[in-house]
Structure formats: structure tokens, C-alpha cells
Amino acid sequence: MPVTFHLLLPLIFLLTVFGPGFQSVSIFPYFSLTLSLYYVTHTQFFNLLFLSLALSLGSTFAYLGVLQNHEWALEGILITIGSCFLIGSVLTLPFVIYKVFLTRWSNLHLSTLVFPISWTGVWIVYYYISPIGSWGSYAYSQFGIEPIVQLSSIAGISAIDFLLSWSASVFNLLLNWEYFNSFQTISGEEQPLLATQQRDRSSPAEIKLPWKKLTTPVGIYLSAVIVLFSYGAARHNILPGSFYMKFIDHAIVPTVKLGCVIGNNIESKQSDYFDQTRDLANKGGNIIIWSESAVSVENPKSYDSLMNQARNVSATYGIYLGVTYNKQYPGEKYSQNMVTLFDPKGQIAYKYQKSHPVVIVESHIAPGPKVIPYVDTPEYGRLASAICFDLDFNTFMRQAGENEVDFLLQPSWTWGPIGKYHSEIQSFRAVENGMNLLRCSSWSPSTVYDPFHHIYAYKQNLGVGSMLAEVPLRRHTKTLYTIFGDLFAWCCFAATLLYVTVSWIPLATIGKWPALVQLLNAKQ
User: Fold this and answer.
1) How many other CB atoms are found less than 10 A from the CB of residue 241?
2) Using an 8 Å Cβ cutoff, are 324 and 339 in contact?
3) Which of 362, 365, 76, 44 is nearest to 188 (CA)?
4) Which tens digit of pLDDT belongs to each residue from 170-190?
5) Where's it mainly located (predicted)?
6) Comparing C-alpha atoms, which of 269, 255, 261 is closest to residue 292?
7) Cα–Cα distances in Å, from 304 out to 135, 206, 297, 298, 311?
8) Global pTM?
9) 1, 315, 466, 508: which one has the fewest Cβ atoms less than 10 Å from its Cβ?
10) Cβ neighbours for 490, distance < 8 A, ≥ 6 positions apart
11) CB of 253 within 8 A of CB of 168?
12) Which of 8-12, 195-199, 273-277, 488-492 shows the lowest per-residue confidence on average (mean pLDDT)?
């Protein structure tokens, strides 16, 4: 392998630093994955270790400040490095699978699908077993490109994973066009990578038919991209009830006022939080929640006091009020991170305990049941709650879509540089599950998103303040993801397992199945 190919590694590293992390440039992941595939195409297996190192180091610098708060701590840096190298190892697996394909098979169409299928399959396993949820996903780098964001309504962020990796695979095909249509030395022997395709010549009559080009890997990809982008753009821009050219008096929808009281876990300010709640209610707030762990309750007396005040305020002003608190009585080893929602009559609608405390940072907090509670209301539909880090677990949040939640009320609290990024990646849950999302957060943006990823409120803060937003009263929107969940991603994983299994079978044995040989164009 020429030394010049190794010069791609610093570029891959740099593109990864500004790819999926805090300082994301949406186009860079396409370049990073494409150049990584280009490197893999022309390298030996051993050199994939260098690729893994470049991806791991890039991920480290992309997320380096994740555990930092005002000051850089060595412990946080070391934990981040270890986590990102683990993610880097996961990222390398699809490249290994792709390299195995290049050494054994020569089907042009499959050559562009092996990587996206394995990439999507590996990531869905990561989403289900990772203690940090979907953190690290390349899909989130597409925030702001609305036609792509809308694809998460089809198959979750796995749909974006597939599009990203498929794009890179097709771009790599174009970069290596001569390679994929000529003889290439593999494992020390000169063999045709695409033996069947390279000698296949279409007749003049066939060449004149444009649709023939649509059956090529590039044609299939471009056709799919056109369809997907059209769907995404239409979903974002053409709202229900607005088609076709409706006048505003026919297209306008009722509104609801959502309030957010921002606190930072200081018990002495409990009265201030209720004062802010009353102020928002006087301004017309219908649903008001507090940011995560706004107050602490340390004994039954303080707990009863908080509940009684919340009950009185909600009943007096006729509002839905979600109060948040960190509950830990003397002698208890772990605390409970809670939100309790009161209805306009002062009755408790539901209580919810945070299901996913942040690893390491919240080791003192006991995880709650993995169930999202909800309540049906006559005015605003179905309300539900989950707390902060819970929304990073896209597989957990599917409950909200399956239960047709209309408004998800999310108390949150973050630290250091992660606030903006955190609010962005969690907004994908609104699109996936067809719901409105009120994020009331301390030390990070408080936001309101609708099911089509329109943002109706955005407020930065330094741990205190309030926000009131008047937003369209849109009900739950059915999405393919709420119906089929992660079926597409698990099909990709199953296909990956099948391919890995077949790859262990000697070529001599595979030769006994002519149909399989013809499908894969196995090298003999």
C-alpha cells in the first residue's frame, strides 16, 4: 500500500473532530466515512487499526468537554477518552465487514450496500445496550438539515444512519470507479473484483434506454435520495390542514401556552419558583413545568409542604403544573429524581422517577421504572413526562409514540458545554414519535418543538429564569416509526449476521450452491 494513503488518516481525524460532536459541520461525516471507506478499499486488514485510532481520537476531541463544568478535570478527560475509544472500536466493525466483502465477493450492487447495512446494524445494537443511550450517533450531525431530520419519522435515527453510510459507500464507488471495474491485487493474487460486471457490455438499444441507468448502484441511490428528500421536505413544510393554498383563517389552529420555570436545586428558592409559576399563570400559561431537580426535599415535612403548595397553585389558577425535586431522606443511600404533575383541580395526575440517571455524574440517584406515565386531558390531549437523560435513549422513548402522547413535558439540567448539543439531539424524539416536546432546562436551552421539528421557543439561561411560549395545539401525529419501531434497523442487523456467517464458509463449499455464487459473484 502506498504511503500516500496513510495521509488520509489525519484528514479523517480532523473530519471526525468536527463531524458528530459538539462542533458539528453537517457535511463532514459524509467526507469522513467516504475517505475511511476509500482507505479501507486500498489497505490491508492490519491497517484498520490505524483507522480505528483516527476515529477514536477524532471522537475524543469531538466530545472532550462532556464531563467538564467550568474547570477541566483530569478524571473527566480520562473517562471521555476511554468511552470514545470504545465507540471508535464499534465504528470500526462495519469497515472490517466491508473489507471482508472486498476480499471475497464481486457483486457491484452489494458492494454499495454491505457497509450501510452493517453500519446501521451495529449502531442499533449500540443504541439498545449503551449506558449512554444514543450519544455518539452520527445521525445527530444532520440537525438543521430538515429533509434529513424528518427521515427519523420513518425508522428513527437509524434511517439517517443508513442514508449517511449509503451515501459514503456510493461516493467511494465513484472515487474508485477504475478500481471497481478492473483487476486488483487482493491477498497477493491478481483477481477481478467485478469479473462479471467488467465484461458486461450493454447493446446499443439498451444504452438508449434511460431507465437502465436507474438500475445501477448510483442510479438506485440517487432515486432513493430524491424520494426521501421530497418526503422530508414535504413533511416539514406542508403541515396538516394547510394543503392546498388554504387561507390563514382556514389553516390556523388553536394554541396552548407552555410555561417553564428554571431552577437549580436550591431549597431556599422554592418560594421564588412558586412566585414565577403564579406569574406565568397570570400571563395565561396553561401547562407549566419546572426544570429538573428545581428543589430538594430532605424529609417528609418538606415533601408535604412542596406537594401542598403545588396542589394549591394548580387548583387556584386552573393549570397543569409539573414540579420537580430531588428526594432523599436521612439514612437513604440513593436519592430519587422526580417530577409530579398536578391537574387543574389540584389532584396528582402522575408521578415519574427518572429512569436513566447519567452514568458516573448521577451515581447517587436511583433509577426509576422503565415506564413513561401519561394522563389524558380534555383540553390538550395526552400529557407525559420523562427527565433529561431519558430522552437520549431513543429506544426507551418509543413508548411515547406507541402511547400516542401529544405533549411530552421534559424537565432537564445540563452542565458545561453540552447544553446546546443536548437540546438538539433530544429534539429528534419529537419527530420520531410524532409529539410536541417542551424541554424546560437549567444551564442549557429551554425549547419547544412540534412533531414536524418546527421550533416555537428557545431560551438560554444561567440556571434561573422563566419562559412562556404560545404554540399551536397540534395533537399526536402517527409516524411509521411509532408503528414499526426499529424493525428496519434490526433487519439490517440480521442481514449483517447472515453475511458474517456466510463469510466464515470456505469458498470451495460455497461453490456447491450455484445460486449463491451467482448472487454474490464469489471469487473462485
Assistant:
1) 11
2) yes
3) 44
4) 999 998 876 666 534 333 343
5) membrane
6) 261
7) 37, 80, 9, 11, 10
8) 0.90
9) 508
10) 121, 124
11) no
12) 195-199
| Cell digits of residue 325 | 425535586
Buried b (16+ CB within 10 A) or exposed e, 260-270: bbbbbbeeebb
Instruction: Say which residue, 287 or 203, is predicted with more confidence.
Output: 287
Residue 121's closest CA among 499, 500, 491, 503?
491
Q: Closest by alpha carbon to 1, among 37, 39, 27?
A: 39
The grid coordinates listed for 141 are 450531525
Cell of 161: 444512519
Cell (9 digits) for 243? 394543503
261 Cβ neighbours under 8 A, 6+ residues apart: 273, 276, 277, 280, 288, 289, 290, 291, 294, 440, 466
Task: Please give the DSSP secondary-structure letter assigned to residue 463.
Answer: S
Measure the CA–CA gap between 419 and 66, rounded to whole angstroms.
10
Residue spans of alpha helices (H) in 21-131: 28-41, 48-62, 74-104, 108-111, 114-129
